[in-house]
Amino acid sequence: MKLRKVSAASAAVLALALAATACGGDDKDSGSSGGDSKKVTIGIKFDQPGLGQKTPDGYAGFDVDVATYVAKKLGYTEDQIEWKESKSADRETMLQRGDVDFIAATYSITPERSEKVDFAGPYLLAHQDVLLRADDDKIKSPEDLNNAKLCSVTGSTSAQNIKDKLAPKAQLQPYPTYSACLPGLQNGAIDALTTDDSILAGYASQAQFKGKFKLGGFKLTNENYGIGVKKGSDLKNKINDALEAMVADGAWDKAVKDNFGPANYKNEPAPKIGDIKS
Amino acid sequence: MSSILYDAQGPRAKRRNVIFTVVFVVVLAALLWWVFSTLDEKGQLEWALWKPFFTGTEAWSTYIWPGLQNTLKAAVLAVVIALPLGAALGIARLSDHRWVRVPAAVVVEFFRSIPVLVLMIFGLALFAEYTNVSSDDRPLYAVVTGLVLYNASVLAEIVRSGILALPKGQAEGAMAIGLRKGQVMRLILLPQAVTAMLPAIVSQLVVILKDTALGGAILTFPELLASANTMSGYYGANVIASYTVVAVIYIALNFALTSFASWLERRLRRGKKSTGAVLSADDVETADAGAVGKL
Amino acid sequence: MFDFLQDYDLAGAVWTTVQLAVLSAVGSLIWGTLLAAMRVGPVPLMRGFGTAYVNIVRNIPLTVIILFASLGLNQTLGVTLGGGNDFETINFRLAVLGLILYTSSFVCEALRSGINTVPVGQAEAARALGLSFGQVLRLVVLPQAFRSSVVPLANVLIALIKNTTVAAAIGVAETALLMKEMIENEAQLLLISAVIALVFVVLTLPTGLILGWVGKKVAVKR
C-alpha cells in the first residue's frame, strides 16, 4: 500500500512538471507555425534597451520602430508581426533557413556577412564607442583605453576589435550581457563598457542612469546597421523603399529621438540607402 | 548521532558554548553587515531595483515564468529520455555476455568523465552543422543532449547499483522457480530496484535542474538564469537583484525536490513490502561523479 | 590534421583547469571539514549554520554561484582577493572561491557519512578516556572517517574537476572556453571535441582509479 502511494506521489510530481512544460510548448507552436497566413516574422534583439528590448508591454527600441515601420509599408498591421530573438551568432543562419523574414538587430553590414545574406539599408550609422562614468576624466582618447579595464559581451565583435587592434593591452572582462557590466562600471571595478554607441546610448538613456554615464565619442569603428534578408530576396528593394520613406516623412528622426534622446548621443544623419561607410 | 561525540554538558562546557556562539554570531553579523552596508552604499538596495519583483506581476510573467518553463522543459525532457537509456545501459552492464557488458561500461565511463558543459558545447555545434534544427530550438536540443548523455550514464550506475543492492535470494529464488534470465530481470529484479532507486532518481533531477543553468550562461538557452539577463536590461541593470531572485527560485525548487527525495527514502525504508534495499539521495551525490573504474 | 592546435594554447588552458581543480580541492577539503565539524558539534547555532549552508549551497547551480562571485563580490562589493588590477588573476581567484564554496558542501556531506560509519563504541571509549569534543573528533573519529570516505571524496573531486569548466562563465581561460573558441573559428568540430574529451578522460579516469585503489587500501577493516 505504502509503496503504491509513494509511486503515485512521484508520478504526480512528474505529471505536474510535464503539464507545466506542455503548456509552454503549446503556445510556442501556435506562434511559430504562422507565416503563410499573412504574417511577418522579424528578428530583433531582446536584451538591448534603446534598440531591441523585451518589455512587459511587448518590444521597444529603435530597431523595433524601424522594423515596425517597414512591416507596415510592406502591408502588415502591427498584430501580424511576430518578433523573434536573433542572437548575434545566429543571424545569418536564421535568414538562410527562413526562420525569419528579415532581421533588424544591430546588424552591421560587412563583406563577410554580405556573402551569405543580402542587406537593405543602411538605416543607421553607428560607431563602436565606450561608455564611461560621468565623472571620469582618465579616459580622454582611444589610446587611454590601453590602461583601462573594459567590459563587453562574450564573443562580441566589439570585444574582438579591442583585443585585436583598438587596445590590445586593455583588460577585458566578458559577461553574458551588457547590463551585467553596469554595476561594475558604476562602482569603478570597470572603467568602460564598450560596444556600438547606439547600444550604449540605449543604456545611458534609461531613467536609472540619467547623469551617471557619458559616451566617450571616440568613433572607433563604423557600423552600418542594415536590415538583413535572405540572399536574392525581392524584399530588399521593398525594404529600401520603406526606409527612404521613413527618413522622408520624419518618422526616422522621431524614432531616434524617442529611443536615444536623453543620452547626449549625437546620432549621425540618416544614411543614404546603399551608402556603406567602411 | 551527534550526541555520541560529546557528553551532556557541564557548566564549563556550557560557558564555552556560549562564548563560541557569541563569537560566531558576531563574526556572522559583521560579515552580513558589511555585505548589506556595501550594497547599500553602492546603491544596489534601492527600492527601484527590487520593486519589479514585489509589485505587480509583469516581471514574473514577462521574464521569469517563460524562463522557468524552459528550465523545467529541458530538465523534464532530459529525465524522460535519459531514464530508459540509463536503464538499458545499466542492465547491459550487468549482462553475462562480455561483448554487451564491456561496450556498455566504456560508454558509461566515457560520458561520466566528461563535463556536461563540454557535451553541451559539442551538441550546439553538432546541431548547427549537421542538422537543420532551427536556431530557436538549437540551444534546447544542445542542452538536452548534453544532459541526456551525461545523466543516462549516471542513471545507468544508479540502476546497476539498485539491482546489485537487492538481496541475492531474490534472483536465486526466481531462478529456482524456473524463470529465465530475462524474466528474472523483468519480473523480479527491476520492479524492486526501481522503487529502491526512486529517491536517487529524484535527487538526480536536482543535478539536472542545476545543470540547465549552464545552457543559459554559455549557450544562449533562454532559461531561468538567462531571463535574469533580459530582465536586467529592462529594469535599469538590476543585475544583483535579478540574480538574487533567480537564485532563490532555484533554491526553493531544488530544496523541494531534495526534501521530496528524502521523504521518499524514509517512506521506503519504513515500508514492509520492500526488501529493504534503498538507494539514498547521498548515494547519488556520489554517483554524480561516479565510482570510476568498474569496467 | 592537428595543425589547428598550434594557434591555441591548449596546454595553458589545461594547466588552468588543473590549477583551478587543485586549489579548489584543497580549499574545499578544509572548509568542508570545518562545516562537517560544525554539523556534528555541540554548539547549536553552528550546527544550524552548517545545515543551512549545506542545504542552500547544494541547491544553487554552480553557474549562479560563480557569476555571483564575479558580479556581486568583485564588481559590486569591490573584493579583488589580492588580484590587484588584473582581471585574469581576479577572475581565476573568484572562480576558485566559488568552486570552494560550492564543493565544500559536498565534502561536508561525504565526511558526515564517513563519520557515521565510525562505530559508536569508538567515540564512547574516547569520551570515557576523558577526551574533549575537539579531541574525540581530531584524534579518533575524523582519522577513521577520512579513511572510509576516500571513495566518496574521490567522487567529489572528479565532479570538481569537471565543474571547473563553469569558470568559463566569467571568462577564465580554461579548457571549455578554449573549446568554444576553437569550435567557433575552426571547422574540425569532431576532432576538437575528441581532443577536449580526451583531456578530461585523462584528468578524471586515473584520479578515480588511483583514489579508488587508495580507498580500498586505507579502508578501516571492521
UniProtKB/TrEMBL annotation, chain B:
Its main location: membrane. It is a multi-pass membrane protein. It is found in: Cell membrane. Residues 68-261 form the ABC transmembrane type-1 domain. The chain crosses the membrane at residues 18-36, 74-92, 104-128, 140-166, 187-209, 240-264. Keywords: Cell membrane, Membrane, Transmembrane, Transmembrane helix, Transport. PROSITE patterns: ABC_TM1. Gene3D superfamilies: MetI-like. The keyword Transferase does not apply. The keyword Nucleotide-binding does not apply. Belongs to the binding-protein-dependent transport system permease family. This is Amino acid ABC transporter permease. The lineage of its organism: Bacteria, Bacillati, Actinomycetota, Actinomycetes, Kitasatosporales.
UniProtKB/TrEMBL annotation, chain C:
Residues 14-211 form the ABC transmembrane type-1 domain. Its main location: membrane. The keyword Transmembrane helix applies. This is Amino acid ABC transporter permease. It is a multi-pass membrane protein. The chain crosses the membrane at residues 12-37, 49-70, 90-108, 152-177, 189-214. Keywords: Amino-acid transport, Cell membrane, Membrane, Transmembrane, Transmembrane helix, Transport. Belongs to the binding-protein-dependent transport system permease family. HisMQ subfamily. It is found in: Cell membrane.
